[in-house]
Amino acid sequence: MNPWLRYLxxxxxxxxxxxxxxxxxxxxxxxxxxxxxxxxxxxxGPNRVGPYGLLQAIADPVKLLLKEDILxxxxxxxxxxxxxxxxxxxxxxxxxxxxxxxxxxFIAARVNVALLLILxxxxxxxYGIILGGWASNNKYSLMGGLRSAAQMVSYEVPFGLSIIGxxxxxxxxxxxxxxxxxxxxxxxxxxxxxxxxIFFVAMNAENNRTPFDLPEAESELVAGFHTEYSGxxxxxxxxxxxxxxxxxxxxxxxLYFGGxxxxxxxxxxxxxxxxxxxxxxxxxxxxxIIGTVIFTVKVMIFMVVYIWFRATFPRFRxxxxxxxxxxxxxxxxxxxxxxxxxxxxxxxxxxLSVFGAVVLIATIALVVRGPRxxxxxxxxxxxxxxx
Amino acid sequence: xxxxxxxxxxxxxxxxxxxGVLRVLLKVDGERIIEAKPIIGYLHRGTEKLxxxxxxxxxIPHTDRMDYVASATxxxxxxxxxxxxxxxxxxxxxxxxxxxxxxxxxxxxxxHLLWLATHAIDIGAMTPFFYCFRERxxxxxxxESYCGARLTLNCMRIGGMPDDLPPGWLEDLxxxxxxxxAAVDEYESLLTNNRIWKxxxxxxxxxxxxxxxxxxxxxPPLRGSGVEWDLRRAQPYECYPDIEFDIPIGKxxxxxxxxxxxxxxxRQSNRILKQCMPMIRATNPGEIKAKISRVVRPPxxxxxxxxxxxxxxxxxxxxxxxxxxxxxxxxxxxxxxVNLQALPAMARGHLVSxxxxxxxxxxxxxGEVDR
Lengths: 387, 371
Fold this sequence. Notes:
heterodimer, A: mainly alpha, two-stranded antiparallel sheet, 15 helices, globular, disordered C terminus, B: 371 residues, alpha+beta, 3-stranded antiparallel beta sheet
């Protein structure tokens, strides 16, 4: 094949398709988020524009495009402009590294250090927020920006550490290989349950989502780092936030929940059970699309969990957030690395899976049993009979 | 080497969580509050001066506008003070007393619901806001069907009540009371045992009982500190002595205890309402207004009368010259204003995030603070 086609045109076309689909998902997410919040909160959510309010996802960007773009007179102009743009770029580029379906078609660029590259790219997102917060020349924005910087830098550590266990199990930074390892063994969520939990918490914190939405805590800092932003610049912040949510959900699915597969390969005879990579590949393009759909459904489950969290939890305080990150998540992640390392060296990875399965079943049992502790009651001073 | 200095932040008057137009001048070191200075007066309307130029019955709508989320109790405090000045307190018919108690307790529920809604959303829990408003709507519907207004009720008259209850009102109330306890349980299931909620409220803004009394704090913040002081019990008015209810008190005097106290107060208010319903049915039909002159001209003298409003001790101090139909002087002791005094002491050393929790836990209404 012509190398130009193979290395430039195809990846570019694939990236563009992925990009458009991802942006459509992001647009849909704004609608899903508001409808779901409405559903949880005993109200309707947007239901006026188009059927079920679906066109709200188009009406909002149009409104934001037409809005006046206000530049505060005391703002640092270049940084103010760069603020919303910087996080956008990595948030988009990352999508060419994510395997949406079975290789080679459904991944724009297969890189053997994809995971490292994704981590490197996503961690640059914080610059935009600091720049935007600082350049607005507003005390609330500054506080929001600084909070965000501290938070994202702190949670980058457990975020990265939680992945190392998976790397040790799979022996590769290539997301495709990690997914293929999972179909040969078991979804990484079992052997790496602790890491998966840490990753999950850290990804919420990375994206500044409830209960870690301190940088934009509207009841404290008005709107945090984007207080002064309006129109399309504001939309860019939102766009990168939602894109990053999507990236992290994609990572979650690829690393811990078997990516595009829904089944496994068993035994030395390679019995294919369910929709494995080989099965999907044998169906050609259709199989690829089925794989992508499976992947997307899994990703959407995590996106919905984000929304669910937002509806349920109050917000952490800043020092408590740091507490959680440094005193709990990082030691936990380090412990997980040590234990995983020893067991992998000893060749006893199955022990990890057994442990994960037991903990998972115990957790589910506890949740099903319902709330245990009776709420703390206040003391009653007097009844009328005692007066 | 480095230039270290505190930052001054204007928290309000236009800020999402100052509950109106409170402005707090903050001196912060990073996020830690060194000094918080509330600046009030953005909603000053000269209500007390207006009282001097109006006949007593004309003042009642103006009391609505002080604590505008609890207007029934504002009305109650004022009409009772005037009745006390006229010496007709004993003549108020039983049915009118019961109606006053019921409206006051409904008002307490609606005020506490609004408090919980805003307090929770300040701390970041979004959903309780909508749940609380769902029930608050029903309370406001009950008000509307009684007097036509939902917020500024103007629902009491000197000597009694303006109208009898409309047909079907008690049945609607019964339906509301039957399900309200479950609704409170629902709010509690979202917050009370939530670890994040506890971390944000336990130990925040601790007021010892002595401090609370020294600051003159009343209402749920005082009871949250463990002081048993409820004017419905301490200086009973209307038909509260006939009704059985508990006074919830806290132990530690922190934001969490004040939260628990208010949650329990809502349940107790519901309990009072449930007791009132058979009592008011027994008075049907009954007088709702004492037989007193329509021209209110109290004898010369002065009176201070206070009631337990949802936010604390709401007192009216009225001086009458005995000649005119308006007060010579009418001073209001608003609970929010007095409770707000403790904010600087409570906020010192806490973080900016805690300030919103503290403003929420004091439960201020600026209309009442500024008058």
